[in-house]
Amino acid sequence: MKELSKLMEYRESIKVVDATLRDGGLVNNFYFTDEFVSDLYKTNVRAGVDYMEFGYKASKEMFDVDAFGKWKFCNDEDIRAVVGENNSDLKVAVMADVGRCDYKQDILPKEESPIDLIRVATYLNQMPTAIDMIEDAVKKGYETSCNIMAISNGQEGDIKVALDMLGKSPVDVIYIVDSYGALYPEQIARITDLYMEFASKYGKKLGMHAHNNQQLAFANTIEACGDGVDYLDATYSGMGRGAGNCYMESLIGFLRNPKYNIYPVVQFIDKHMNKLREEGVVWGYDLQYLMTGLLNQHPRSAIAFTQDGRKDYAEFYKELVILD
What span, in angstroms and rounded, lies between the C-alpha atoms of 74 and 77? Predict the structure, then answer.
């Protein structure tokens, strides 16, 4: 059992990662105004956030550039237009999905780029390519992390093999990812123990990325934090795919490190996040997302339910059970 007295202290090794543009971009196809992005960057700097994830390095051959905002692709010049020389302690991150990016050509050497961290996202069956992407990014001079997605549907033996592969790779941080918002804090504790076994063996850091289908993203994040996970993902107002993510305002409010400042976070939400909702951008916990979380299913059906404006929750539940 964790010592309650620890809640009065802070751990210097903790890093807060803002994923608003990337995970939130899945809600509005990455169409954020330049003012929004600039203010988000400045807010993260003022709030003491450690990393800001600008979006994806998505393949321009696979995805129509005209169908998405620029943060689907994160051109270096677009990032530089926001951060300039980035004369701050904040580091810039982007995500590269296995099979959905052209990493060898689109990720430039670090000395030519404003990016600091490449976050590789992979499924268990894609690990060899994920390792190649990590090795490529490290050779180019970047920090790296790896998100193993959909572990709630994975076999423990397969997860162990993947963790051993990552342990032997040059990756810096290995992420626990609750892709479907299906996990509970006690499960996170057990999963963290498993990940920690390999992290300790190979000298890696651990991260946590939670989804809020069962309103447990914050609880699962602080559970992982209490169990020794250092890299903690969050988004402003929880903005993210479907039910969204751990709320940045909750996480900053929880952490005791004096370098974090919640007031700029509140200011940004007051100016921008409420406006997004008023403009009709929809995300966050709702009954349809609870259902997919309970059934450990991908939220794509719940997202479609939301986009179609459906309210027949009982019928939707029957559909999910038949599909399960």
Answer: 8
Q: DSSP string covering 288-308, please? A: HHHHHHHTT--THHHHHHHHT
Alpha helices of the chain — where are they, by DSSP H? 20-28, 34-47, 76-83, 103-106, 127-139, 156-168, 185-202, 217-226, 248-254, 262-268, 274-278, 287-294, 300-307, 313-323
For residues 78 and 103, the answer to whether their CB atoms sit within 8 Å is no
Q: What is the largest CA-CA distance in the chain?
A: 55
Let me know: does 231 contact 246? Beta carbons within 8 Å: no
* DSSP character at residue 269: I
| Contact present, 277 and 249 (Cβ < 8 Å) | no
**Domain edges within the chain:** 9-278, 287-323
Query: Is the distance from CB of 56 to CB of 71 less than 8 angstroms?
Result: yes
pTM of the model: 0.96
Q: What is the DSSP letter of 126?
A: G
Q: Quote the tokens at residue 287.
A: 């009954």
DSSP string, 134-174: HHHHHHTT-EEEEEE--GGGS-HHHHHHHHHHHHHS--SEE
Architecture of domain 9-278: Alpha-Beta Barrel (3.20)
pLDDT tens digits in sequence order for the chain, 324 residues long: 555 446 667 889 999 999 999 999 999 999 999 999 999 999 999 999 999 999 999 999 999 999 999 999 999 999 999 999 999 999 999 999 999 999 999 999 999 999 999 999 999 999 999 999 999 999 999 999 999 999 999 999 999 999 999 999 999 999 999 999 999 999 999 999 999 999 999 999 999 999 999 999 999 999 999 999 999 999 999 999 999 999 999 999 999 899 999 999 999 999 999 999 999 999 999 999 999 999 999 999 999 999 999 999 999 999 999 866
CA 207 to CA 225: how far, in whole Å? 9
The tokens for 216 are 């447990």
